[in-house]
Amino acid sequence: MKKTRIVVMLFLAPFFFVSMISLSEAELRLTPAISLREEYNDNIFLTAYDEEDDFLTTISPAIALTYAARGVDLSLDYRLDFDFYTYNSDRNEIRQRGRLESTISPYRDIFFIRVSDVFARVPIDVRRQVALDNILTNTTDSNRFIVNPYLEYPLSETFLARLGYTYENLWYEEGEGDDAENNSATLSIIKEISSKMKASLAYTYLSHRPDRTEDYDRQDAGLSIDYKLGPKLSLNAGAGQTWFVYKIGTKLDSTIWNIKADYLLTQRLSISAGSSVSFSDSVNVGAYERKSSTGSISYSGKSTVTLTAFRNIDKYIIADREDRSKGLTLGSSIPVTSRITGILTGRYIYYKFFPEEENVDRYGFGLSFKYSLRMLTATLGYTHNLSNSDIEIDNYRNNIAWLQVRLTI
Predict the structure, then answer these.
(1) Which of 10, 31, 185, 197 is the most buried (most CB within 10 A)?
(2) HEC letters along 348-389
(3) Buried b (16+ CB within 10 A) or exposed e, 8-28
(4) What is the pLDDT of residues 185-225, one digit of tens each?
């Protein structure tokens, strides 16, 4: 994988497409910004004993771009984080953060090219230390680049055929991460049955070629339906079959399905619930089957609050491993005055890991206050993390206090 060199090229590529179209035909918005963050962390390595504290200074220039023209849509958020540690200067680094989404239609709204690139820091393994706002332990930079040319051909006013190819390049900074290249082809037929119902039938063939785990080919076939029963209730459901064939000879076939309902109780209050069986690839252990159930309630107005409950069972195909988790997450934004907003985040997750049968309770809580002016935003925040495990060495407690000032031009 070509790492940083590829990332820079990917984020510069959209500007080539932009340059080919007259700006008089386009809507262009460019927003530069820079922020300074000072943080104190009392356990930067999330250890059970001999905790190390440190002060972290981060300087972050950033740019946001949106561009719309005939045949081209593009959005880009990109940021560089310059990290400076007071006592652990060997940990100083420059981190990239970015998201690119672009769709180009070279020919009459029939042929499209979608480009996506996301550069982010992600956890490596949930069995190890994972904490809100802690960027050092059990994390790695990752880059996911996708190119997806596809054709959409209307067979009738309510009947659409879609044929596409997708190339995906996945890269991780840490050696534990399983870099991979994926090539897939998809054929789908979409039928608008009525103004309230839409159905699609799809088949996908995927070739997965990782660097560390086992190669496999995968096929998926299934039917999905979107149904709006009324102004308040909508349903999405799907069912199908998936087949894995590993190069080492292992084979697996399984039923996959999902169902989700969204209901608008009032103009501002909504609930949703869903359940699914699906397959994904982990950062470092290969593919796994996830059985998932979720439910949430959301309020949106001057204040926004979302509370979500979930339960997951992750069973790995090649590795002798099963991870079970259940818990709650909370996200809210509450205006205190016309210029001050309070932001509250929280999560509780109970894990059970097999075959070791380790039990872990993890708690995370964050509270911050944001003071906004026309170009300047100042934020003061605090985060607390706690982990209790059957294995004493896996326990940790972590407190983070921070102040950030952001200037948007």
Answers:
(1) 10
(2) EEEEEEECCCEEEEEEEEEEEEEEECCCEEEEEEEEEEEEEE
(3) eebbeebeebbeeeeeeeeee
(4) 999 999 999 999 999 999 999 999 999 999 999 999 999 99
How far apart are the C-alpha atoms of 254 and 276, rounded to whole Å? Answer: 13
Distance CA 84, CA 120 (A): 19
pLDDT at position 264 over 90: yes
Phi then psi for residue 173, to 5 deg, are: -65, -45
Distances (CA, A) of 374 to 253, 290, 377, 405, 406: 56, 45, 8, 13, 11
Question: How confident is the model at residue 109, as a pLDDT?
Answer: 83
Q: Could you give the CA distance from residue 333 to residue 10 in angstroms, rounded to a whole number?
A: 34
Q: Decide if 310 contacts 330 (C-beta within 8 A).
A: no
What pLDDT score does 25 carry? Answer: 61
What pLDDT score was predicted for residue 71? 84
Instruction: Say which DSSP state 53 is in.
Output: -
Structure tokens at 125: 């393994």
307: part of which helix (H) or strand (E)? strand 304-316
Q: d(Cα 342, Cα 303) in Å, to the nearest integer?
A: 9
pLDDT in tens, 11-49: 545 544 454 444 556 789 999 999 999 999 999 999 999
Q: Is the pLDDT of residue 299 over 80?
A: yes
Distance CA 220, CA 256 (A): 9
Q: Give the whole-angstrom CA distance, residue 100 versus residue 34.
A: 19
Percent with pLDDT over 90 in the chain = 89
> For 84, what's the count of Cα atoms within 13 Å in the CB-facing half-sphere?
8
Helix (H, G, I), strand (E, B) or coil at 3: helix
Extract the tokens encoding 72: 């081209």
Taking residue 366's Cβ as centre, other Cβ atoms within 10 Å add up to: 19
Q: Which helix (H) or strand (E) holds 99?
A: strand 93-107
Q: Which residue has the tokens 């397959």?
A: 279
Record the pTM: 0.89
- Residue the block writes with tokens 């069912």: 239
Can you spell out the DSSP letters for 168-203? EEEEESSTTS--EEEEEEEEEEEEE-SSSEEEEEEE
CA count, 13 A, side-chain hemisphere, 52? 11
Beta-sheet pairing, 27-41 with 54-69? antiparallel
Eight-state DSSP code of residue 395? -
Handedness of CA 118, 283, 148, 196 (dihedral sign): negative
Other C-beta atoms lying within 10 Å of the C-beta of residue 286 = 21
- The pLDDT of residue 373: 93
